[in-house]
Amino acid sequence: MSFRHSTKNALNWLVSPFGLEIRRRTHDWSDTRNFIPLEETLAASERMGLSVGDYIDKVLNNIPGATQFTIDEMSRFGTFSQAIQTVLEIGPGSGRYLEKTLALCSPSRYEIYETSVPWASFLVKRYGVVFQPTNGGLLNSTTDASCDLVHAHKVFSTIPFLPTIQYWSEMVRVARRGAYVVFDIMTEECLDMPTLKEWRLSKIDNGSYPATMPRAVAIEFFTTNDCSLVGSFFVPMGKGRTEAFIFRKR
To answer: What are the structural domains of the chain?
Structure first.
């Protein structure tokens, strides 16, 4: 019997009168309310010789190349065709979109609004980004019309309605004229009957995830707030897909 196992048994004997038991913590990868564990993910990606983002796509999400596909589509619609000095990303998490964004542009400033402090600290250390404080709905530390690219990926399909439209208003505010605004949502185009069955049978119970939003609402919100729709495309997520939109500030 190993020392670790013996210690665990001894500790369980001590706490058992209180109705407690010590167990190894495991992460539920389907639960978006819990952040992906930092150290475990870094170690696993290193063992496999993959970047963190590619590891999450290939191993955890079982959708190899999903992040790169999104970046390629953004590029196809012209997102990286102009000089980009300042980027703002909402909810970068592990930095999988951040990493690939930096491969296509060289901003002098990259701001992130992230609620997971361990991951945000990791991104600051690895990429030199600016970690801004957030309350989960506002971009208070960013000045008006200061960003050339404002984007969020797999964020608005996981949070409730009100924070989503708060963030949308903020994205418009911080985007300068000619800037690109990119995000994805689960629209009605993503909700065919076979997909609904997949979600129903998944038994996922994650609060607001997956959150849905009418396509027309998103388009009208941005087009009535000084943005033009450049294009949209579908990207895989969980048991279905989301629709990604690219707008440009007028």
So the answer is: 68-249 (3.40.50.150)
Q: How far is CA 246 from the centre of its chain?
A: 16
Does the pLDDT value for residue 101 go beyond 80? Answer: yes
**pTM of the entire predicted model:** 0.85
Q: State the Cα–Cα distance between residues 114 and 90, nearest whole angstrom.
A: 6
Report phi then psi at 130, rounded to 5. Answer: -100, 115
Percent of the chain with pLDDT over 90: 74
Cα–Cα distances in angstroms (integers) from residue 100 to residues 51, 73, 230, in the given order: 10, 12, 21
Q: Give the confidence band of 131 by pLDDT, cuts at 50, 70, 90.
A: very high
186-241: pLDDT as tens digits:
999 999 999 999 999 998 888 889 999 999 999 999 999 999 999 999 999 989 99
- What's the chain look like in SS3? CCHHHHHHHHHHHHHHHHCCCCCCCCCCCCCCCCCCCHHHHHHHHHHHCCCHHHHHHHHHCCCCCHHHHHHHHHHHCCCCCCCCCEEEEECCCCCHHHHHHHCCCCCCEEEEECCCHHHHHHHHHHHCCEEECCCCCCCCCCCCCCEEEEEECCCCCCCCHHHHHHHHHHHHHHEEEEEEEEEEEECHHHCCHHHHHHHHHHCCCECCECCECCHHHHHHHHHCCCEEEEEEEEEEECCEEEEEEEEEEC
Mean pLDDT of 51-65: 89
Largest CA distance in the chain: 68
